[in-house]
Specification:
By secondary structure, the chain is mainly alpha-helical. 96% of the residues lie in helices and 0% in strands. The longest helix is centred in the middle third of the chain and has 62 residues.
């Protein structure tokens, strides 16, 4: 009978540990999901900030010295040429 009681006690301890590990696993999954969502928000914010920075650089170049304006115009001309090329490729 003593072995049966010991087995029963071991089973009870294992079940308690299993429940605790399962709860911890659930908490970790939730934390992981939360971190993934935060990473996605951060990436979106970074992309928006990069876009704003690029616009600010372009605006600054337009209001800067004549050399900076010429450089900006050349860059815009290149970008427009690249866009035109992509449109032509897409039409084919």
């Amino acid at each position: 009978m003593d072995q049966l009681e010991q087995l029963s006690e071991n089973l009870r301890v294992l079940l308690m540990r299993y429940d605790a590990l399962r709860e911890e696993n659930d908490r970790l999954r939730e934390a992981n999901q939360s971190q993934r969502a935060e990473i996605l928000r951060s990436h979106a914010e970074l992309a928006e900030l990069e876009t704003q920075y690029s616009r600010l650089r372009l605006a600054s170049a337009m209001t800067g010295t004549p050399e900076e304006r010429d450089s900006a115009r050349r860059r815009l001309t290149q970008l427009i040429a690249q866009i035109d090329h992509v449109i032509e490729v897409l039409r084919q």
